[in-house]
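Narrative of activities, Objective 1.

The group set out to show that a structural description can be obtained from nothing but a protein's sequence at a throughput compatible with the screening campaign. Below is one input-output pair from the validation batch, recorded exactly as produced.
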Amino acid sequence: MTVNSLNQVRPTQSLRGHVDVLIVGAGISGLGMGHYLATMQPGKSFAIVDSRDAIGGTWDLFRYPGIRSDSDLHTFGYEFKPWTSDNAIADAHEILDYLHEVVDEDDLGRRIYLHHKVLKADFDSATAQWTVALERDGEHFEVTCDWLFGATGYYDYAGGHRPHFEGEEDFEGRIVHPQSWPEDLDYTGKKVVVIGSGATAVTLIPAMAGEVEHITMLQRSPSYVMPLPRKDPIANSLRKVLPAKAAYAATRRFNIGKGRFIYNLCQRHPKLARRIIRSLNVKALPEGFEVDTHFNPTYNPWDQRLCAVPDADLFRTIARGKASVVTDRIARFTKTGILLESGKTLDADIIVTATGLKLLPLGGIQVSVDGEVKNPHDSLLYKSFMISDIPNLAFAFGYTNSSWTLKVGLVCEHLCRLLAYMDRHGYTTVVPIVDDPHMDKRPMLDFSAGYVQRSVDLFPQQGSTGPWTVEMDYWADHDRLRKGSVEDPALRFSTAVGAQAVSRLARA
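Output recorded for this entry:
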């Protein structure tokens, strides 16, 4: 399916009436949930709403040069749909094509409502229904649903993290943020400075280098950067001798294990991991390059996410002399560039502030229960996909230390089993309840990255035991979500007498 064919089948009118499940977000998590509902719960009515004018979430929003995955698509892709491209590290357009195929294969187009922004949602215990307030092109309206599923990702789509730099108003060039990349930005023959050292910065440098006069990555402190092959030789070899599904399953399992091995090595033997990463960097960079200045962080490997560079493209760009790295602090912007605290200056026609993201739980939706507004931070996470004291609400939140989508499939599958259990027993409501008021609490994300620390107080917390812990290990979640029972002492099931809702949408 293409954009044009999707637009031909998706509804043109606003969503009205009632659905069993309302999915908020038409990115990789929301479309994944759509697949699992269509295949595991074919009797359920559902709709997918998104505030934007296209599906794809991250992969449509970001338009900066070189936008690509930083995980291999054999683990970032869906378990149910093989990734068949030769590229394991994929560009955004390849990922979007893949998502459009999912929409086509599961007939999701007729369920996708674009330009639908969810503002707030209130759960009514008497009817066991959510009333959801939406806005479309200035029109405000409401729909009802039995379940609300948050597939909103974890960052603020309205804008990225953008600190103010002294002297910005004096700079005579152009300042852009990758999350709001201008379509008319011409950087041909220009001097460009990219502020940042994360995944976005290491993507932009090689992608822009061929057209600029020179491009500089200006970082306050280094990040770990790992060269990876864009094409996975094991995956591509297996596809030649095995059926697509078998080759994909084998590659996926191998890559899950490989990723976990690397993570555990970094956590348990950080000095060894640091030496290995450094040796790879030294091998890829020009002789005499100051590796310890520019690519040797003070923190241990995987205390923050590793930056992947396919086929060492960042290092090759530096070796060709088209790009350079400067590790220093910004004193102020000037008319012609940036003055550094060391006294050096960087001339620039364009400054790109790749300074990170702003996180936002549940897409900023105001959630209330029987009129009482809930602050997510006051609640604990249940199995990483529900929130204590909030009924019939689930969401997808992936891993920080491996492919995001690995958890999405497990969560969606477990939720479908939970829905089936409730139907069999005649339950209309389920809510996680914390029985131990003295349980120790800690942040949902135990991650030192700046974008996490800036927003951690907005998110629910995790507990210290049982289903209240957040697992960042696929196999632990596999046991908990795929093999584990949906019955749990922490869940309270009930039946509301007046909970019979009439759907105005065709059931699948």
